[in-house]
Design goal:
- The longest helix has 37 residues.
- Helix 3 packs across helix 4 and helix 4 packs antiparallel against helix 5.
- The chain has one domain.
- By secondary structure, the chain is of the alpha+beta class.
- The protein is 46% helix and 15% strand.
- Strands 1-2-4-3 form a four-stranded antiparallel β-sheet, with helices on one face.
- The protein is globular, with a radius of gyration of 19 Å.
Length: 188
């Protein structure tokens, strides 16, 4: 399994066969292109213990509702068997939510070549969104390879992105107020 590309794209580059209402207030998205390689032959139902290990690490994935055209939630679909590209999409969204930056839009589409998937998801903070995609890819790859993953450290780093962004917003607000006050003082 390998990541081919990860980038930030504007809404104008989104494939819009989906519900356009979802996209009304979104300006940019994270887009990943991955190649599942040999894992294309192994949906989640064929990866022994994969679903239970993933749910142990991220129990909140049980709250991910049905996909378009389905009545089953994500966990039920993983037990039946879905491709790892879709799992990566959901994990990237959930990691951001766990770090206090909920992101509710995502979609996964197959590419022209077998095993290649395009994953698109929203983000609240661009640095956290990119990092969440990298983490999601590494986590799913590790579990598919029957390995382990340190989820706590990954989420702590994502939280750091959130607070860094909030600090910068606060600092910009303080500077703007100070600048406005200085202008007012000099004008009077």
């Amino acid at each position: 399994m390998k990541m081919i590309q990860l980038s930030v794209i504007p809404q104008s580059q989104m494939p819009l066969e989906n519900n356009e209402k979802t996209l009304e207030n979104k300006e940019k998205f994270i887009r990943m292109e991955i190649d599942l390689g040999l894992f294309e032959a192994y949906p989640t139902s064929r990866l022994l213990g994969f679903v239970s290990k993933l749910i142990t690490l991220l129990p909140s994935l049980q709250d991910h509702g049905p996909a378009e055209g389905s009545t089953d939630n994500l966990v039920a679909r993983m037990h039946r068997g879905i491709w790892l590209g879709e799992v990566i999409e959901h994990v990237a969204q959930e990691l951001q939510s766990l770090a206090g930056m909920p992101c509710r839009f995502g979609m996964t589409r197959t590419g022209a070549n077998p095993g290649v998937y395009f994953i698109v998801y929203s983000f609240a903070n661009v640095h956290a969104g990119v990092y969440a995609g990298l983490i999601a890819f590494e986590l799913v790859k590790a579990l598919a390879d029957d390995g382990t993953f340190d989820i706590r450290t990954a989420i702590q780093k994502l939280v750091g992105f959130r607070f860094h962004d909030e600090d910068n917003t606060f600092k910009r607000a303080v500077v703007n107020v100070a600048y406005t006050s200085e202008e007012w003082w000099q004008a009077n």
